[in-house]
Amino acid sequence: MKFTTMLSAALAALTVPALAQTTAPSAATRVAADQIATKQGALTVQPITHGSVVFTWNGKTIYVDPYGGAEAYAGLAAPDVVLITDIHPDHMDAKTLAGLNVSKALMVVPQAVAEKLPTEYKAQVRVLRNGQRLDTLGMTVAAVPMYNLPEAADAMHPKGRGNGYVLTLGGKNVYMSGDTEDIAEMRALKNIDVAFVCMNLPYTMDVPQAAQGVLAFKPGIVYPYHYRGQNGLSDVATFQKTVNAANKKIDVRLRNWYPAAK
Question: Pfam families attached here (predicted)?
Fold first, then answer.
């Protein structure tokens, strides 16, 4: 995806609210969670919808980009940590946050998100900029770049505004791409055990870009997520075939992140 003019960025931005109205799953339609072994017990990976996932590890619960309605999180433990990647409503969803019990959660966010969050969360917010990290609750949260190519101030996702994240817990490194393209910083990642990689035009990258990026940094496991775009769902089966044709060691896990989609 290339944003080269103010017009293209503006037109694309107009589509974000429509995407943000995607129906989220309820607890009844939520897909089964995965278990990934770590040195300190299992990491539970619970897909929610689009770019949102819930991790449970070592008695702690982490919500990533809670979005789409609090009912999607029914029955899950209240978060100890909330990670938000960017300002768009499919990542920073104030209505969903208001419906969740986040009163005791540490909210790790980029500065742009901190400036837009309701004031009631101010005391809970910890701002991380690209390249910064935080040790909390036995884990490390590192903020990494996410942005569109070519770099431009008028891009939907300019460099430095949003955060991808690398969580280190129980000896495992878990990468959340956020809204990014096949950027050099993603390709340069090392020792990633589990990756969640976006692929939805025109907002992020297409399937071939995502596949080539993953083949560059070689995670042990990769979940395609955030794959609903302007023209429907990306072809994640082709992503899997492309990655595994070049590297059969990468475990590409296809999960239904849109079980409530019509």
Answer: Lactamase_B_3
Tokens at 143, concatenated? 């903020």
User: What is d(CA 173, CA 208) in angstroms, rounded to the nearest whole number?
Assistant: 24
Tokens for 180, please give them.
């990014």
Architecture per CATH, domain 27-252, reads as 4-Layer Sandwich (3.60)
Q: For 223-256, write each residue's pLDDT tens digit.
A: 999 999 888 999 999 999 999 999 999 999 999 9
Query: DSSP code of 67?
Result: -
DSSP state letter for 73: G
What sign does the dihedral 127-120-177-190 (CA atoms) show? positive
Backbone angles phi, psi at 15, to 5 degrees: -85, -15
CB-based burial, 137-152: b 16+ in 10 Å, e otherwise: bebebbbbbbbbbeeb
Stated as kind and residue range, the H or E segment containing 96 is helix 94-99
What residue segments make up the domains of the chain, in order of their start? 27-252
Judge if pTM exceeds 0.85. yes
List the structure tokens of 43.
Answer: 């990491």
